[in-house]
What we know:
The protein has about 210 residues and is of the alpha/beta class.
Amino acid sequence: xxxxxxxxxxxxxxxxxxxxxxxxxxxxxxxxxxxxxxxxxxxxxxxxxxxxxxxxxxxxxxxxxxxxxxxxxxxxxxxxxxxxxxxxxxxxxxxxxxxxxxxxxxxxxxxxxxxxxxxxxxxxxxxxxxxxxxxxxxxxxxxxxxxxxxxxxxxxxxxxxxxxxxxxxxxxxxxxxxxxxxxxxxxxxxxxxxxxxxxxxxxxxxxxxxxx
Length: 212
């Protein structure tokens, strides 16, 4: 495992603040969408699942060495995504060294991101994660799997993963739009029950990323 990530794990165990980040990428897609999402998710997790996540969320470029200082990176957007050769190598090294990338399609990202994920892991296919996976069980139970937060194309929500030695290192959530559910209530005017489902699922993702 990358030495930097080993150090991060030791820091978690000592009880210091956990750092998470938003991924900045090229291609013209709005990587900066949902600006209130991660701060709200961090606050929810700190209040409900005993985490100590810094609610001041960093931005990290996918090709930067700084990405190795974050155990969890979230990526979203509505449009085009392009990973350069350097981005591909950097992300592969990050993810195979213990890092975790959550990509949440904010609607319109799917046709682009699948091709870019294939660049990172040409020999690993995205695999749909079954509803009985631990990701949907702890700390909140989702017996039906990934919840539906926003309706786009009348399709079922799906969670896909890239697995390395049995561990999800890249999670791609599709047809759910979790990030919209994490935003401030007035942004989308979602009912509290919908926002709670989104936040609880987000807490499960962070819990998995930190503990597995």
